Structures are given as C-alpha cells and as structure tokens.
Sequence to fold (857 residues):
Amino acid sequence: MSIFQRIFFSRTKKENELFLPLPCVELTNDRATFPTLQHTLDNFINCCDFVHRTLPEINVDLVYFGHLLGNDEFMRDIATPFANIQANEVGQLLQRSQYHQILDSKSLIKGILDGEVAIFHKENVYLINAYKPDSRTVQQSETESVITGPHDSFLETAAINLSLIRRRVKSSHLKVLKLEVGEVTKSDVYILYIDGIVNMEYVNELVKRIKSIEIDAVHDGNMLVQYIDDCPNSLFPLFPASERTDSAVSRLVAGRVLAILDGSPSVISAPASFFEFFSSPDDYYQRWALGTATRALRFIAFLVTVTFTSLYVSVTTYHYEMIPETLLLTITESRSRVPFPPIYEALLMEIMIELLREAGARLPTKIGQTIGIVGGIVIGQAAVQAGFTSNILIIAVASSAIASFVIPSYIMSASIRLIRFGLIILAGTLGNLGLMMGIALIIIHLSGLTSLNTSYLTPISPMNFKDWRDVFVRAPFWALKERPSQSRSPNLIRNKMKK
Amino acid sequence: MKKVKERLAPFHITILIFMIQTGVVIFSLPRLLAQNFGYNGWLAIVIFTCISTFNIFLISLVHRLGKGISIFDILENSLPKFVAYTIYFVMISIWSMLGCIVAKQYVIVFQMIAFPTTHPMFFKALVDIIAYLLITKGIYNISKAATSFFWIVIWMVLLLTFFIHDFEWGNLTPYLFKGSTSFLKGGLDCYTAFLGYEIALLLIPFAENHKKFIKAVHIGNLITAITYLLVCFVCFGFFSFGQLTRLKYPLLDLLSFIKLPFIERLENLLYGFFLFTMLITIVMYCWSAIETLQRILPKVKANWLTVFVLGTTFLIAWIPDVIGKVEKWLQFLGYAEACVAFGLPTLILIILRIRKGH
Fold:
C-alpha cells in the first residue's frame, strides 16, 4: 500500500478520524501477514506496559496498552459487554459497528500502538478504539500571553487541539487530513484548511513536503517546520508556530493551512510573511487606533533592537561628531573609566543579557525573577562601578533587549537578537557603513526567502498596498474586507461568504 | 506546486528605475548645475527630464515594435554574429565599469569622510561581495530588494523640511542661467545623473504587464526628476550661489546641518543610507553586463560570470586611486553610457524598421 493510500484511506474507522475520506478496509488473503495472538505477543515482548487479558469462558483474548485507554471507554465498550455475554453471543457482539475486523498483522500492531484494544476471538481479530490518554488541561499560553481575548491555548494532544479549533469553526468546510511523520515515532500530523477559502496548491504542497520527511522522530511543531520550510538555513522562521487557538483560527480563516503535530502545542501555519510575525491576535480585540499604535510600537521595537546597540558602537567608535556637545560630555565621562573599545563593551553586555535571559527561561519562575534582579541590577551596577562598562551602554543594551521582547513571536525575537550581534561587529569594524552593509545583507537575504513558494516580504515586495491595512496598521474592520493577497484565496472577499 | 511565476510588476519597475538612476552624481549635482547653468540652474533639471523622457519614448518604440521581445534576440536575428558580439562587448565593458566606478566613488567618499587611513579598495571589496550576493539571486529578487531599499531611503526627502527656516528666497535671484555657463559639456555631466532608465531595454522580457511597462519607466524617471528638483531647489535656496560652486558635495554639506536633540551631523549616517540606492545602481549595471555576457557565453553559469565581471572590474578599479581620477573615469563612462542610452534604442529601431520594410 502506498503512502498516499495509507494517509487518505484508513483501515480503521476511529472516531477522531471523521475528516478522512471513506475508510477502506484492505482485504487480503496473504496468510503470512494474518494476525495471530502469538505473533502479536511476540511483537510486544519485553514491553512491561503491554496488557494481555484472557477470558477463557468466552474464548476471547484482549491485548492493549492500558495507559493509552480511557477508563470509561474501556468499561463501556469492552469490560461490561464481555462480562455479560455467553460464549455463543460473542460473534454477534463483534458484529457491532465499533468493532473492526483486522486482516493483516501490520494494521493490528499499528492499531494497538494507536490506543486501540485488540480482541482475539477464535481465528478472528478485531480492534476497538478506546484511546484517551491522560493530558494536562487547557491552560493559558506562557509564551504568547495576551491581556484581552481568549486565554485558552493548544496542548500536546492533537485531538484536544482539533476540538479547540472545531469549537471555533463550526463549518463542514473545515477539512482535516491526517499524515504521519517519524519512522520510529509515527507521530500524527493533521493538516487543516477551510475548503473554498484556501488555495489547494498550498495544501498539496504542504502535504507533499510532510510526506517527504525521512527521519526517525519529530518531537515538536517548531522542529517539523525546519524539515518543511523553504530555506532551512535561514535564521528567520518561515512558518509561524502558535500556541494560541484564536491566532490559529484567524489564520485558517485568512486562507492559510494549519499543521498540528500530535505531541506538540505549537500549531504551524503556512504560508506566512515576515511582517506577520509582528502581529498579535489582541490587535483585533482593541479599538483599531490602539491596535495600530501597538503594531507601530512593535515595528519601532524591531528597529531599536536591531540598530540601537550597533549605532551606539558605531558612533562612539568612529563618529563622535554625531553626538551633540552636551551629550558628548556625559558619554565621554561615562566611557572614561572603561578600558575597552565600545565593540567589546557592547558584546560583553549583550552576551551577559543573553545569559540572564537563558538562565531566567530555564529556572523556575521565582528563581528566574531573582536572577533578573541579581543580573539586571546588581551585576549591571557593579559592572559600571568596576569600570567594565559605561552607563550609557547599559541603557542601550537594556533598551535593545526590552525591545526584542516586544515582538510577539518568540522564535522571530530570538532570530533578531542573534542578528544584532552581527550588526554590532560590523558597526564596530566599519562604523555607519558597516551598519548599513549589515542591514543591506539582511534585506538581500529576506528578499530571497519564500514561504511555501510565496514571497516572504509580502506585501512590500510584491507590493500590495491593500494588504498594508492589515500589516503595518490595523485598519477598522469595515476596511478589512479582503483576505491577504499572499493566501491567493479563491474567495478573496471576507464579507461575502453567504451565498 | 509550481513556484509562483514571478514577473516584474509595473510598480517594481518604477522603483527599480528610480533606484538605478539615483546614484553618486546626486551628491554633486547642485554644484554641477550651478557651475554649468549659472543662477537658478536647478531649473535645468526640467530640461533633462524632457530629454530623458524623449529617450524613454525611443525605448517605448523599441518595446512596441519589438512586441516585447528581448533586444538581444532582435540584434542577433538581424546582425551578423561578429557585429552583434562587438556591440555586446562594448555594452559589457561600459556597464560593468560603470557599476564598478560608481561603487568606487561611493566608497572613496566614505573613506575620505570617515576612514581616512583605510584603503578604499577594502570597502570596495565588501560592497562587491554584497553586490555579488544580490546579483546571483536574479532579477526578481533584485527588484524585491530594491523595493525594500526604496522605502528605507525615500523618507529622506522629508529631511528637506528641516531647511524651510534657513531657506533664503534671495539666494535664488531673479536671474536665469546667468553666469559662466557651459550648457553642452556641463549639461552632459549633469545628464549622467539621469542615466539608468536605459536598463529598461533589458527588462522588457521580464515585465508582467507590457501595457503598463513604459508608463512605469516614465513614472520612475519622474520620481527621480522630482527628487532631484527638490534637492537642488533646496540647495540653491540654502547655499549662496558662490558657496554652491565651491562645495564639492553640496548635498552632504546640506545634510550636515541637520540637528536633532540627541544626534547631529547626520551626513555620515545618511550617507550610509545612500548605500542602498548605490547598491541597486551597481547591481543593475553589473546584472546588465552579465545578461549580455551570457549571450556570448551561454554555457557558462551565471554565478561564474558574476565572479568574472566583478573580479575583473575590481582589478581595474585599482587604477584610479584618487577621487579626482575616479570622477574623471565616471565622467567619461557617463558620456559613453549616454551614447548607449540613445544609440542602442536608435540602432534597434533602425533594425526593426528595416525588418518591417523587408
């Protein structure tokens, strides 16, 4: 059976596979692959979590992984029915639609691994879905918190993530395809799109890319992205990954394709543009003028984080004439005790800030706060007093670091912080020209990037002024009538869905 | 999924033309106008705009009669290979050297104002590396980068509002084109500031919308003209005529007067911003040279041709070692390019006319 068939034609009709085309049970007469109890037990030898129950009075054997099953499901569909029947009634019971007869060993093994219970009765084998593993409850996202708007976020369980989306998109047009990645882990990947809004070329391309992944395991959505994006060597994320349900749904409605990896709370969307990483769902929950101001603030933050420290280095190293006389006295006095050139001073402090950030992220929240205080205040103050660095640089580096955290996407923010180091080095060696060269290099790199074969710099190039209303500003809703041009949606108008 | 077929949209052609035209001459243009056209020389820009518009009209005829076919195909189908290749050789030499010398002048000015002890060829090498990275990405990505660069530099026009207070209407005087003038030779020097639109000849096959193609080139040329007009008008009103004729780079001097509460003498930083326009000028001339060279050597990879063109011109760029020599080279290359700008479309029009007659 080809991969295509395996993905689109499921052999078992699980409840959560309601999105697939009609299931196709492959009937085979190949006795070599016919499932037997012994063969199944042999497969799971040395798996202490594997359960084998025998019911000799009715000639039934049950095999399953107990921790993958829900108690209620197990009681309702297996324990209770089999406890209350006679041996001659088993065949009749197994005719019910929830029991699926399996004719090949491979499907049986896969079914058991997917959380189904295998029932051996005489020579026949059946699977029944009782999958309901434990998972944490729906909580607020820690990486993408918002002040106003929905607070629920995705979890590690794909079924819950799907339900969170289904709850918001009550439409039969919301389609879900199921794929599989990881030769060993066999993780499920769900592709979501809204039929009639999405450009099917994107769906096909994404499916093609996911199917072409050859790796033993994929653990997270952000890891999956790196296997499927257009330029894996780029520093910039090409597909946004979000934990927020409202963000995912808004992208879905905008004509994007979503990918949910089972085991990861990060939901990927594609295609995307560079500027999309600067918008947050709560821009739409505020009045449009506030949303626009917040968005403008993020772009200013981007400029500050990229150029502020490097401009400081450039000016204090080569272009002192740019500093007004009054400020020059303060800077000179501040720098007079520092024995290093500004580039070393800046790199030292930037690395220090990164150390603090990394330490804060790894430690428990309370200790993380202490680290922030110790690092930010104590070390910062001590460094100035010891003559390691100047006050002004501390301000520049701190502003730059704070500005980097204004960017809503953590991955984008991390990429930009790394780029900053390159710019500082260029500014420290070539002054303002180096800074401009660095910016030119970044833009040249961005110009060459594509996201799912569409320009990453949309809507600047290719230029589309209409899109600017929802990228650089957050226009009033009456002005946001069209979906983004990057979606190339067959249904571009947002407010004409009712036919 | 097939990659989205990218074509140059009219907007991108407009931006590209503007970015190619805006080069190093803008720094000295007010002086050149003052020296060669006398009082109120800034008005000569209107004359140059008319000339460049006529030249674009010639290109539009090539576009219309050639029906969107590449000029290389027209030349190769009508001329003996030897003649066509000789023309190509001339074009390659002029375009590649023009790109190279523009870069050299840009870095040598920067070296003068900020890094007097560093060899300018070091900066030139860095600019060439950036140019290489952009050229090898192809014309569509060059146009994308040009559009981003455009938004980074165009805001600088607003800086001219800083001079409203210090603008002296008296400096403009009631005289028009009076003083020691040199309309012909000086005019040619000034006209080099407008060159760059002729590259549109090579963009014809890449255009998305052939109907709007020429319109886009005209708009690009017009934006350049308006920018020049604004800059020169402010320079003529801000500086006295005598100052203007003596200042080497009036635009840089003008920018040095900008003062903000926390930063001043911005000319250094703003000169850095001109790297973006310069880069597109350099890249597009080199790209044109490489496109032409590819017609002679179709089997050689474009990347290697880029290395060859940039490498060769880099070596030649060692020869003019002082700013005076660089400017002289740029002047002569500007003359040659002006000949190409008028000569090439004229030649193609003659060929198309003869072919039509046959």
